[in-house]
User: Which sequence fits this backbone?
């Protein structure tokens, strides 16, 4: 059974795009009056030319963003993540151990003097730190400043307090950035007399620096 | 690893939106490439910090990104936010001005065009943007006029589908 509508079934798009020849357009418009299916099809597509008209040449022929955009964005995101990790871990420690009340940490360019005494390196590691413990009502304040000069990217460190009875409390974690100093001030419920040592460790538990009062 | 996942997020943001943001930022900064790059960086970083922005239609995500870019470029939003280390998510609430709305629509349509097959995109570029008639397009592409008609027929339907997926309705 032949259906004359089929001749026009694919005319809809060319019609709304304005690409039909005058003859085809005339014939199709005449057909539209009689064919609901084609009229509906045209209606379905009728909004598209309006949307297409918002496309300007530079959107199709894209001027690609600078090549350094992504690497820089990734670096900035990683740096931001480190700051966030820092805060988050500080908070987590406080909640679990109830030993840490406040962790204030900033990453600053290396240089400048920090109060405290140097932590003792337990090997040749590209990391140096200065620490101090001061009494505080109900505990103590641990100040620590750690600079990292490693060339192989970043490193993940944590600061642990070793009590006289041998138990430990993790005070903070941070990502070390080459050429930058992590400074932190931690208020802990540990009394100064309870702290036998402070240790900076890598995440896999290796102690790289130790400090004793 | 968490870091890898967050790198992926930034990569995805870049792949999905950087071209549109870059072009929009160039317009906002009157062609100042350094400033435009700064605007795009800052916008991507903000989106990265608030990934939930992306848990919505692409249209809404784009609207958020364009609004943020606009505020950074024009209102100097950045300087205020840069002062605090930890930024909180302030989703922009000001409505988009008309030109931003148009650019936003245009970019979504351009993205949808980019998702079509080469044959579909080509026939739409000719018949709509370059104003070719069916007969001219047929000569240009070396195909029958009937094929140009059926190709545009399927191409516009594919475009409509791609736009619907992005949350754009006519």
Assistant:
């Amino acid at each position: 059974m032949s259906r004359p509508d089929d001749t026009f079934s694919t005319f809809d798009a060319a019609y709304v795009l304005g690409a039909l020849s005058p003859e085809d357009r005339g014939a199709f418009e005449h057909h539209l009056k009689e064919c609901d299916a084609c009229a509906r099809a045209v209606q379905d597509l009728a909004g598209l030319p309006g949307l297409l008209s918002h496309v300007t040449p530079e959107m199709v022929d894209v001027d690609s963003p600078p090549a350094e955009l992504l690497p820089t964005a990734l670096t900035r995101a990683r740096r931001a993540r480190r700051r966030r990790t820092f805060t988050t871990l500080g908070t987590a420690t406080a909640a679990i151990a109830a030993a840490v009340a406040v962790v204030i940490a900033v990453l600053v360019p290396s240089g400048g003097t920090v109060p405290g005494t140097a932590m003792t390196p337990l090997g040749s590691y590209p990391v140096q730190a200065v620490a101090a413990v001061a009494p505080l009502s109900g505990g103590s304040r641990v100040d620590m400043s750690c600079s990292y000069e490693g060339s192989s990217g970043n490193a993940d460190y944590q600061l642990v307090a070793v009590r006289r009875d041998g138990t430990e409390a993790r005070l903070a974690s941070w990502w070390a950035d080459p050429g930058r100093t992590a400074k932190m001030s931690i208020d802990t419920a540990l009394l100064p007399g309870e702290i036998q040592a402070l240790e900076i460790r890598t995440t896999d538990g290796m102690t790289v620096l130790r400090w004793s009062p | 690893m968490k870091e890898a996942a967050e790198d992926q997020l930034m990569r995805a943001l870049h792949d999905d939106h950087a071209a549109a943001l870059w072009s929009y930022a160039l317009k906002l900064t009157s062609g100042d490439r350094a400033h435009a790059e700064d605007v795009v960086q800052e916008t991507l970083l903000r989106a990265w910090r608030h990934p939930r922005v992306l848990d919505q239609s692409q249209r809404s995500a784009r609207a958020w990104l364009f609004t943020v870019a606009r505020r950074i470029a024009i209102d100097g939003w950045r300087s205020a936010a840069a002062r605090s280390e930890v930024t909180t998510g302030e989703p922009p609430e000001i409505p988009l001005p008309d030109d931003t709305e148009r650019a936003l629509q245009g970019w979504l349509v351009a993205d949808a065009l980019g998702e079509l097959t080469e044959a579909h995109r080509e026939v739409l570029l000719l018949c709509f943007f370059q104003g070719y008639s069916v007969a001219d397009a047929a000569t240009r592409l070396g195909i029958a006029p009937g094929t140009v008609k059926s190709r545009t027929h399927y191409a516009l339907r594919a475009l409509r589908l791609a736009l619907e997926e992005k949350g754009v309705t006519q």
Remarks:
- Residues 78-93 of chain B have pLDDT under 50 and may be disordered.
- The radius of gyration of chain B is 19 Å.
- Chain B touches chain A through 60 residues (CB under 8 Å).
- Residues 2-28 of chain B form the longest helix (27 residues).
